[in-house]
Specification:
Number of helices of chain A: 7
Number of strands of chain A: 10
Number of domains of chain A: 1
Strand content of chain A: 25-35%
Strand content of chain B: 15-25%
Structural class of chain A: alpha/beta
Order of helices and strands of chain A: EEEHEEHEHHHEHEHEE
Helix content of chain A: 25-40%
Largest interface: A-B, 35 and 24 residues
Number of strands of chain B: 10
Oligomer: heterodimer
CATH class of chain A: Alpha Beta
Radius of gyration of chain B: 31 Å
Strand order of the largest sheet of chain A: 6-7-8-3-9-10
Largest sheet of chain A: 6 strands, mixed
Distance between the termini of chain B: 27 Å
Largest sheet of chain B: 6 strands, mixed, barrel
Structural class of chain B: alpha+beta
Shape of chain A: globular
CATH topology of chain A: Rossmann fold
Distance between the termini of chain A: 11 Å
CATH architecture of chain A: 3-Layer(aba) Sandwich
Helix content of chain B: 40-55%
Order of helices and strands of chain B: HHEHEEEEHEEEHEHEHHHHH
Strand order of the largest sheet of chain B: 2-3-8-5-7-6
Number of domains of chain B: 2
Bound molecules: adenosine-5'-triphosphate, magnesium ion
Chain lengths: 231, 394
């Protein structure tokens, strides 16, 4: 694994939140390399800075100090517009609360990033169908998010994250809202994806999910406590 | 996809969207009416003045060029002088007056115009024949009805009333040759037209007066130079071409246009504020959704386009509804304003010209874009991570 190119690399990341007189030091010097094809779980107590780290790794947020390179590209060199485009084409996000567009059908939700990327309608349709089949929801393509269960919504969200074939999948508590059984389905899906070559970084409290990863990164008080390869 | 999202956002709050559309429709209707008012009177004046091809009028200075109360004396001399200009191919003298049609119950007072039936631009014949003798007249439908007469009947008409003797004077028997539509009279006139000489005799006017002349020019003649020639040759009258009459009208109507401009701007502003409020509320409700879109790589440009689209869609839906509403109210207001004393009924205050509809529609579409500026900016400049976090906490 060590000789694979890096999907994402963080150096000495700091992130302060200005909170009046007492700024919150959410990250206090985090360095992390994730090789292409790796599958890392970030765990730690609530408020330790996991989501903050994930947002920095995904170029949603900018560090107070330090640098992030995604596929060798330094994020700080990107303008807002370039960062947006970069996220669109190279990073997939999965959130705890799924965050599907309620007005769009499952298929349209999956098509959204492809439409933004400029794919033709036919290309979008075909790829959305393929992705929904992959997550086992082909039959629900025309359903609205409200007509789907939590687990189904999360599978649609994963399909959406994969739409533009990202190099890196970033997930923040993807099983946080799901029961154990549905959570297990998502875990299986991630394993299948990773086996297919997708690089995954997942923030989680879910021990089952963490146990499925190849590597577990422990964060506490804005620092990495341990970084253990499990398989 | 953007269209779907914008449509879904509007359709998802159906009642609110409908209220906004109705609100915009009302303001669009007012805007259309004001645009119609600003240009309508002028356009309808032009039509009115040009109606029979008389492009120059001679009138005392400062009067509207269809004012039959005005007086120009020694008309014969002026006619002779005008005849000397080869550019002038026809001269129509017009004298205004008042006559009393006698009958049971006191009779009817009528507006009378004396003209040369061969060269006149004051009425169009509707039924019967044109005037063919000194004791013939054409009358308006309203006068015919008021006098309980029919075409072909003979009326006893008096030119004066002596209050001391309590008796009518200068009485004459006039045959109704036909009925006519009078172009320059106020609404529903009791009017009659007769030969100029007859009216002069009946009103006891001395010194062959007329109220105004209307001139038809040779095709290709320059109205401005003819006008200048007349003012030099006959200094007692002012010559008014259609163009200069319109300038006069413009001056007199500038208050109307200012009023129309102000009311139109106000209604447009109200429309903008209404839609801006609605779209801002709708964006505020969807901050989480927008932050998610931004996170997964949807550009600020797409967000802006989506929000703008919402504003423009409401504006255009409202505008379409408002177009109908505006035409209905304009028709109604026209009915009221055409009773305005002293103005020909044929003047439309609100004249619908397709151009007006396009101007209104363009302004409203622009207003929709304007209304979207703030909410679009708000949506586009959202801090993504913080908004997602707030959304997760909520
Ligand atoms: N926008 C913000 N403004 C102020 N403080 C913030 C902001 N975002 C995060 N923080 C603070 O930074 C610290 C780290 O937050 P973060 O969300 O990264 O924790 P986390 O490990 O993801 O927690 P959890 O497991 O509860 O999701 C916390 O103390 C949090 O209160
Ligand atoms: Mg978190």
């Amino acid at each position: 694994m060590s000789d694979a190119p890096l999907a994402v690399s963080a150096r000495d990341l700091r992130r302060d939140y200005a909170m009046g007189d007492a700024p919150v030091h959410a990250l206090q010097g985090v360095s992390l390399d994730v090789a292409a094809g790796d599958y890392a779980a970030i765990v730690g107590p609530s408020g330790c800075g996991k989501s903050t780290l994930l947002n920095l790794l995904g170029a949603i947020d900018r560090p107070t100090a330090g640098s992030v390179r995604i596929q060798g590209k330094p994020v700080e060199s990107l303008s807002d517009r370039e960062a947006t485009r970069f996220r669109l084409l190279h990073i997939g996000f999965v959130f705890q609360r799924f965050y599907l567009m309620p007005a769009l059908s499952a298929a349209e939700n999956v098509e959204l990033p492809m439409a933004e990327a400029g794919l033709s309608r036919a290309q979008r349709r075909a790829r959305a169908r393929e992705l929904l089949r992959y997550v086992g929801l082909e039959a629900r393509a025309d359903h609205r998010p409200t007509q789907l269960s939590g687990g189904e919504q999360q599978r649609v969200a994963i399909a959406r994250a994969l739409a533009n074939r990202p190099a890196l999948l970033l997930c923040d508590e993807p099983t946080g809202e799901l029961d154990a059984h549905t959570g297990a389905e998502i875990i299986a899906l991630f394993e299948r994806l990773n086996a297919g070559g997708t690089t995954i970084v997942v923030v989680t409290h879910d021990e089952e999910l963490a146990a499925a990863a190849r590597r577990v990164v422990h964060v506490k008080d804005g620092r990495i406590l341990s970084d253990t390869r499990v398989r | 996809m953007l269209v779907t999202l914008a449509r879904a956002s509007l359709a998802g709050r159906r009642a609110r969207t409908a209220l906004a559309v109705v609100g915009v429709a009302v303001s669009a209707a007012l805007l259309l009416d004001m645009v119609m008012l600003a240009s309508g009177m002028r356009a309808s004046f032009r039509e009115l003045l040009d109606v029979r091809g008389f492009t120059i009028r001679l009138a005392p200075r400062g009067t509207l060029p269809f004012d039959t109360d005005a007086r120009i004396d020694s008309a014969g001399a002026i006619m002779a002088r005008l005849g000397a200009n080869p550019d002038i191919v026809a001269v129509s003298p017009v004298l205004g007056g008042q006559l009393h049609v006698l009958g049971p119950g006191g009779g009817v007072t009528a507006v009378a115009i004396g003209i040369n039936p061969a060269v006149q631009g004051d009425y169009t014949l509707r039924t019967g024949h044109d005037i063919a003798g000194p004791d013939q007249a054409v009358v308006s439908a309203d006068l015919l009805a008021a006098a309980h007469a029919r075409v072909g009947d003979t009326l006893d008409v008096a030119g004066g009333y002596d209050a001391q003797l309590r008796a009518v004077t200068r009485e004459r028997r006039i045959v109704i040759a036909g009925t006519a539509h009078f172009i320059y009279t106020p609404a529903n006139p009791k009017a009659m037209a007769m030969p100029l000489a007859t009216l002069r005799a009946m009103t006891g006017a001395a010194g062959d007066p007329v109220s105004l002349f209307m001139l038809r020019l040779r095709a290709g003649a320059d109205a401005d130079s003819v006008q200048r020639w007349i003012e030099r040759a006959i200094p007692r009258v002012s010559a008014v071409s259609t163009a200069s009459a319109l300038r006069q009208v413009d001056r007199r109507l500038s208050y109307f246009r200012q009023l129309a401009f102000i009311l139109g701007s106000v209604s447009l502003t109200v429309g903008v504020l209404l839609v801006a409020t609605l779209v801002t509320v709708s964006v505020n409700e969807r901050l989480g959704e927008i932050a998610v879109m931004r996170a997964i790589g949807v550009s600020t440009r797409s967000i802006v386009a989506q929000v703008m689209l919402e504003g423009v869609a409401i504006m255009l839906a409202g505008a379409t509804l408002g177009l109908g509403l505006g035409l209905v109210t304009a028709h109604y207001l026209n009915g009221i304003l055409s009773q305005f004393p002293g103005l020909p009924a044929a003047i439309d205050f609100f004249l619908f010209q397709p151009r007006d509809a396009w101007v209104s529609l363009g302004l409203l579409a622009l207003a929709g874009v304007l209304a979207g500026v703030y909410p679009a900016w708000r949506g586009a400049s959202l801090p993504i991570a913080a908004t997602l976090r707030d959304e997760a906490v909520a």
